[in-house]
Amino acid sequence: MDNSMEKRSAETLNVIKSSNDFVVRKRNHAVMQWMIVSLSIIMIILSVTVIVTDRLTITSALFTIIGISCWYVSTHMQHNRDLLNATEFQNALFASALSMGHKFCMIITRDGGIIYFDRPFQATFPEFVKQPARSFDVFLDQGQVGDGDKEKIRAAVKQGAYEKITFNIRCAGGEIQKVIMSVEPILRPSGYVLLRGSDGSQA
């Protein structure tokens, strides 16, 4: 079983990136874009007032320019709202799918920064959630995980290796529970790891 897991891990991690790979999009400089659009509108208005001498024509042109600008802004804002709604729905769907069959799940970076944890995680570790500075190392320390188990988990996370580790951890109300944690590296985008915990008492 372990050999097949290692083989699957090696084959999966050797995936060659192509043009179809997931691309992390970076935020554009919206302020600069709006400044360019505003300056363009002003230049068009000034050009119209210089070229056209008839006031009625100028007024009609200005109303047309302002109307087109308002239409563009409102359409762009509605598109952003629709995109946000679709993204929130997908996030909720994917988060529910990730935690199916597990006690809790979380996504961290390879250096231990926490990106996401689900609601069952918050219910299981309420004291950790209240911490002002949250990291995976703090989570392990607060859960009173054994030093040997800590090193195994940290090594798997840092190396981006598939691993399953069984250990005891302190949960809500100080209760010590046996947990089986699976460490699963995320291929795209790279640099992130999915951690899922299952009830180890039934293993």
Number of helices: 7
- What's the CATH H-level superfamily name of the largest domain? PAS domain
Largest pleated sheet: 5 strands, antiparallel
The tally of beta strands, per DSSP, is 5
- Note the run of SSEs as H and E: HHHEEHHHHEEE
What does the overall shape look like? rod-shaped
The number of domains is: 2
What's the CATH class label of the largest domain?
Alpha Beta
The proportion of residues in beta strands is 15-25%
Structure classification:
alpha+beta
In spatial order, strands of the major sheet run 2-1-5-4-3
CATH architecture of the largest domain: 2-Layer Sandwich
Q: N- to C-terminal separation? A: 16 Å
Low-confidence region ranges: 1-23
As for the CATH topology of the largest domain, it is: Beta-Lactamase
What is the residue-mean pLDDT, rounded to a whole number? 77
Q: Could you tell me the radius of gyration in angstroms?
A: 26 Å
Helix content: 40-55%
Characteristics of this structure?
203 residues, alpha+beta, Beta-Lactamase, 2 domains, five-stranded antiparallel β-sheet, 5 strands, 18% strand, disordered N terminus
Give a brief rundown of this model.
The chain has 203 residues and is an alpha+beta fold.
Structure, explained:
The chain has 203 residues and is α+β, with helices and mostly antiparallel strands. The chain folds into two domains: 1-98, no CATH class; 99-202, Beta-Lactamase, CATH 3.30.450.20. 53% of the residues lie in helices and 18% in strands. A five-stranded antiparallel sheet has the order 2-1-5-4-3. Helix 2 (30-51) packs antiparallel against helix 3 (55-98). The radius of gyration is 26 Å and the shape is rod-shaped. The two termini are 16 Å apart.
